[in-house]
């Protein structure tokens, strides 16, 4: 049968929806914000069945411009295709200078070394 929906405002333009890590940027993280008001149709019956989560490629490569898409808000409503809403960066993260790049590289090397030690112990 025909499903009844109510349009709800889930976020206003500029609302912080989540945080996204930035690879080798001057900022290690940027906020993923609503680029516009986010309005979503909710079923009149079964509103609890609606789920939302953020998807992004981690980490986002620097540079990241303010207003650039960095993630998507995925809204799942049963029996309806997922609604994917772009989320944008609230600030710029330029390509990091020497210190952020060394920090990122050393973190990666430490993670790789730990992974190799784990595989040797298994």
Blueprint of the fold:
Layout: E1 5-11, E2 16-23, E3 29-34, E4 38-43, E5 51-55, E6 60-61, E7 69-77, E8 80-89, H1 98-121
Parallel strand pairs: 2-6
Antiparallel strand pairs: 1-4, 2-3, 3-8, 5-7, 7-8
* Structural domains: how many: 1
The secondary-structure element order is: EEEEEEEEH
Largest sheet: 6 strands, mixed
Q: What gyration radius follows from the Cα positions, in whole Å?
A: 19 Å
| SS elements, strand count | 8
Spatially, the strands of the biggest sheet line up as: 5-7-8-3-2-6
Proportion of residues in helical segments: 10-25%
Q: Which architecture per CATH?
A: Sandwich
This entry's quaternary arrangement is: single chain
Please tell me the overall pLDDT.
84
Structural class: alpha+beta
Distance between the termini: 55 Å
The CATH homologous superfamily is termed D-Ala-D-Ala carboxypeptidase, C-terminal domain
CATH class: Mainly Beta
Content of β-strand:
35-45%
Coarse shape: flat
At CATH level 3, the topology is Peptidoglycan synthesis regulatory factor (PBP3), Domain 2
